[in-house]
Amino acid sequence: MILAGKLAVCILLGYLIGCVSPSYLIGKLRGYDVRRSGSGNAGASNTVIMAGKLLGFIVALLDILKAAGSWWLCAALFPELAVAGPLAGVSCLLGHLYPVFLRFRGGKGLACLGGLALATSPKTLLILFGVALLIALLTNYVAVVTVSMSAIVPLYYWYLSGFVLGACILAVPIVPIFCKHLVNFRRIREGKELRLSYVFNKQKELDRIGYEEEE
Q1: Cα 162 to Cα 42: distance, rounded to the nearest angstrom
Q2: Per-residue pLDDT tens over the stretch 17-27
């Protein structure tokens, strides 16, 4: 297979895997459309809002694994192609953000960023999880964590591997992720964005932003 064909396979496989949304599927099983409920985000954070912490954790885990799995699959298919893994992983993340099956209304990408870290190594995931946790404790907003990690992941990969092209590929989602979070930053400014402390003090946060849960 010629180089262009291999690159196309990596992009297509990664994107299609990313388009599979556990958050949406769980929502349909429970009788709601995650894109029209809660925060309107087809990802783990909105699953926590709509279906609870356990299902939110399951969604996050599946999103991590789909990004890592895309990387591992294409790296195994094309071991001679150094960019195969990063290209497939990033394509998966973009599929998660803009899934064709959901009319391009997907999630925000934090768990998939974790998947890119995991694909590098479990140690990398643990280190970057610690960084994300520190940012979360300092800011109390998922949006700030996600946008920050979209830049930190490729920088850390560059530091570890010295593979400039791979790091540049991993940096591609920075702008789409930032754009996906513009609405969150607007709500932060207006005092209407749920803080991470929602996980521990649900009713207080819902009362603070004036949100009424769906029956």
Answers
A1: 34
A2: 999 999 999 99
